[in-house]
Design a protein that fits this description.
Helix content is 51%, strand content 9%. With 243 residues, it is mainly alpha-helical. The protein folds into 2 domains: 9-109, PNP-oxidase-like (Split barrel-like); 120-218, no CATH class.
């Protein structure tokens, strides 16, 4: 059956293809794994990109170590669905991305961002932990010069390292059990993971909460196939870095 395209199809199709290849490449791998049954675990498949899209199917192209030429893999929409317009195409492909990602136990969202502390409570917590670090090297300045006139605080000087160690241990446990699963689920790249863990060692569970709140704020607009090339905020390279 020939593909059904409208007069505006090339522009709309090209826009979707561009967005997938710039922002949603991880979804293309999911679609290959789930719908085309193409394994990518052994790194034999590379240069995955969306080649074409129409009202009936998407075509994903990739290279394989054992094949000299580019391989094209058409993937028809579920239940051989034929879409009536490009809005329906976008919604159909988006649902397929969510389903393919779910089969791997991860989110369709690939988060490439660090959200730094912004609330007063977060900064007070970080400030307190930082003072404990300084207190390890300069106890006289912290417990004498800075807080010497405050009641009780000077008497905590002998316990500074115990309090600091306990805080680090608590934050480490919080990061391992609350933050690490989210970093895996949202497929956060390793360089961003290091920043997230660094924040978690300072404010613990608060980092996991910030990540969850941020994802909640973007999940409804994560799959956006609108034309952003004219926007001054449009990133030049790797547009998913803003999400």
């Amino acid at each position: 059956m020939p593909s059904r395209r409208s007069s505006k199809a090339p522009t709309r199709a090209a826009l979707i293809v561009s967005k997938f290849n710039r922002r949603y490449k991880h979804c293309l791998e999911d679609l290959l794994n789930y719908y085309a049954k193409v394994s990518t675990k052994n790194n034999e498949v590379e240069r995955i990109h969306l080649k074409d899209i129409d009202f009936e199917q998407i075509t994903i192209a990739f290279r394989h170590d054992l094949v000299e030429f580019e391989i094209l893999k058409p993937i028809r929409y579920e239940n051989d669905k034929v879409c009536e317009n490009w809005d329906e195409v976008e919604e159909t492909v988006k649902l397929m991305c969510y389903k393919a990602a779910k089969s791997k136990g991860v989110s369709a969202i690939c988060l490439k961002k660090i959200v730094y502390p912004f609330s007063i409570i977060n900064w007070l917590l970080i400030f307190g932990v930082s003072l404990l670090f300084v207190g390890h090297y300069e106890p006289a300045w912290i417990y004498g010069t800075l807080f010497g006139k405050f009641p009780i605080i000077p008497s905590l000087e002998p316990y500074n390292d115990y309090i600091l160690g306990s805080a680090m241990l608590i934050h480490l446990v919080e990061a391992w059990f609350t933050l690490a699963p989210k970093l895996h689920y949202y497929r956060v790249p390793i360089d961003y993971q290091m920043e997230w863990y660094g924040c978690a060692m300072l404010d613990g569970y608060a980092s996991a909460l910030r990540l969850s709140h941020y994802v909640t704020s973007i999940e409804d607009r994560y799959f956006d196939f609108s034309d952003d090339t004219a926007s001054t905020d449009a990133p030049v390279v790797d547009s998913d870095s803003e999400l």
